[in-house]
Amino acid sequence: MPPSFLGEFEQMVLLAILQQGDRAFALEVRRELEQSAGRSVSRGAFYTTLDRLERKGLVRWEERTPEDSRRSAPLRRFEVTAEGLEGLRESRRALDALSRGLDHLLEST
Amino acid sequence: MSDAPHRLPGWATAVLVRLLPAGVRGASMRGDLAQEWSERARGPGRQVWLAVEVARLGFHYGVRAAGRGGGGMEGAWGFAVRKLRRDPGYSALAVGTIALGIGVTVALYSVVQAVLLDPLPWERPDELVALFEGHEPRDVHRNVVNPGNLRAWRESGSLAGVEGVMPPQPRIVSSPGEPREVMASFVTPGYLTLLGVEPVEGGGFSPGAGGEDGDQIVLTRRGRLELFGDVPEVVGRTVEVNGASARVMAVLDDGHLPFADGALILTAIPLADLGDQTNTGRFLYGLGRLPSDGSIGAAQAELAGVMAGLRERHPEFNAGWRVEVESLRTVLLGDLRAPLWTLLAASGLLLLVSCVSVANLTLARATERRAELAVRSALGASSRAIAGQLMVENLTLAAAGGALGTLIAWVGATLLTPQLLTAFTIPRLGAVGLDGGVLLFAALVTGLTGLAFGLVPSFAAGRASPAATLRAEGRGPGRATGRLRSALVVAEVALSVVLLTSAALLVRSFRTLVTVETGFDVERVVTGRVNLTGERYRGSEPDRLFFTQLERELAALPGVEAAGGVQMLPLDGLGSATSFYAADGPVPPREEWPVADIRPIIGAYFEAMGIDLLAGRTFGPEDGPDTPRTVVVSRSLADEVWPGLDPIGRPLAINWDDLDPWTVVGVVDDVVHAGMDQAPRPMVYHTVRQAPYFPFMSVVLRTRAGGEGEAVGALRALVAELDPALPVTRVRTLDDFVRTATARPRVTAFLMTLFAGAAALLAAVGVYGVLAYSVARRVREIGVRVALGARGRDVVALVTAQGVRLVLAGLAIGLAVAAVAARLLESLLFGVAPRDPVAFGGAALLFVAVGVLACLGPALRAIRIRPVRALREG
């Protein structure tokens, strides 16, 4: 159970990681965010958010070293944890509850 | 990810390794960036992109993360502010030091910007040129121009416009209001159009002004206020100037008018009415506008051709004279460049000294805080975070210093500007003040200052390992910090020495200048000017009568030891000059005639001025309007024309009304004339009774002690008795003329001394700080030495030696740099060599003294160390 609601940006990062599946490397996640959400994401803020989500236990990462290049830096592949998923659902439920009966306003035409 | 290894350029990796978190986290961030880098197209755009990304990451992790714990950016600043508040002594000292440097630099920059950098305030100012005549054999340059020659230049069509200006002269305005003296310039009617000056009221001169369109004047705003007060409409009104009525055509905004500065009235006069080569001399400043595709070189070449024709047509007048075309900017501002840039550079050096000084202070404080920093480090703060935290603190200090400094600059510029404007006779090109450009400069300087003094301590602190620091606690920090601080002190001393030698050179140059033999004595001498205007004084006969009457009455003035008058006082402007030759030999070719200044005088002028009579006599009753014409000449004239001969009784032909010789009856000493740094020029004096020439006279009164007020009052009464309509104007002491003539070097030397003093003080504080700190660190060592029999003298020597080493090292570097820098000062020096040993030696000695004084405190503390306590506490 997450201690508090997720921030908007945190939710977006978590969803972007889920969208990328097993290709959820930091760079890809950031690009997914920029494309789907249409907003530019500062590199520093993005990494800081990832670090915070990791501290809260909502994401975890594993180290992958690309096989085809000896000198490349290691990459981190991110994964949303069960807590992370639960947090997303929680936020979604709250949003749904708040949105009830407002479809005519919120549906895009 | 298959394509090639994603590798960043070395510099980016080097920076990022320092900034980003350690381990896989940081490495993967670099990896992400490397991949994006490899995907971008090669070219300068990619480099710029990378630099921006690295800078953004650097800001995020280097600065923002610094306040972590408080959380984010606000935390970092807040933490820094809390930290600095807790140590008000240090903060105040640091902020004050920075503010001093920034304030002085910004204040001078505001002057430099307004005077040298801002464009001249006229339409397409780069096209404007000044036109002069020059005479190579006589070494005369930038001489005023003959109206006939100027007209020929205009008619040649080489320039897009040519106009003439006469420098401001006092004139009497008798209506509206009471008669009073007002400065006025004659200009040709196209003057304002040539400059592109738009009047604020009215339209300007009509093209026929001064001729068929009648007399016309234009007022400056100040002139409007002076003449009319608050009257709503002045255009179209008439004004009586020197007895002639003229119509007000327009009002100009107050500002700079080339060659007519200080004039409240511009009177239009057609160039054709000013005479030509056959009936008048050279008295106009020429102003021209280059054609839009023209250059100064081309204009100079074309006008030189025109001038060659003029020499042929009027050889008796133009032989040897050439045309000189110069950019107006150079003519108006050229002299100001050297002193103003020098002062700005000096203020920059002072800023540098204050940066080094604060770096030193910050380093000392970081050392005192080593326990705190070590604990933070041990609790998990990365060295990067600690360096970042210090950086934020330093930037906070710099920002506070910058804000205070800008305030100081504002006050300084407000106080300084009038001084500088007077001293440098700076044309007021736009107001000096803190505008956008100056504020931008201030912000830039502040940022650089913060970086300059912040980087060293931040990185020094960031490097230290917590374990080593905690272990070393009680024994003081590592040697590295000590060495760094010593290096900073050496730099401080060196920079201060450069400033101090420069100041010493300028002060010595100034002292040489004020001890120049002026040839006159300023003690108890007051002067006042009488200007004959109005219908009564048409033609020269009434002038002669008036001055003769004045001369008769002057001697009887109460409170006066000697009284006389001259048409143009020394150091009061150029006055008139003409060519001459000794008439007791063959007549030399015209272009070889020497030039002398001509001064009509009245009364006991030489006695009143204290000018020594060297041979013969001065004028007496025997030199009247109907007796043979006589002159008194200056020593340099006599030496030039009759070297080794007795000049008394010899004839002198003066190219003035005619060439009939005058007889030399006396020789007086030379006086400085055009400036204190100019060699005296040959001078011819004659009595006004034999030729008045000009309708004005500066009366000179040598008073009895304390009699100045009485004498001036009596002079006013006397002039009013002779003609109630005439005021006595510009009452000044003779000393005042000398002070004005030396104002520029005085202000330059004064400011430089101020900067050097401040720098020397900062350096002394630096030396003191390092030594005091070193003594504190070596308490135990000194205790042991004392316990083993070292005497007080040995301890003092030990401490002092360290300080003296620092000072000597700084001195050596500083003197070497100063020897080079002094070359740049050369144009500002008078009678002092750029490597003047007295200035260099004096600066060196002063610094040794400062160093010894700075050593005293710490040394005294060291000899008070008690071995027992030292050992117990250590």
TrEMBL record, chain A:
| Transcription regulator PadR N-terminal domain sequence ranges | 14-89
Q: Which portions of this protein are annotated as coiled-coil regions?
A: none
Task: Please indicate which superkingdom the organism of origin belongs to.
Answer: Bacteria
Please identify the protein, giving its name as recorded. Answer: Helix-turn-helix transcriptional regulator
Q: Which InterPro entries match?
A: Tscrpt_reg_PadR_N, WH-like_DNA-bd_sf, WH_DNA-bd_sf
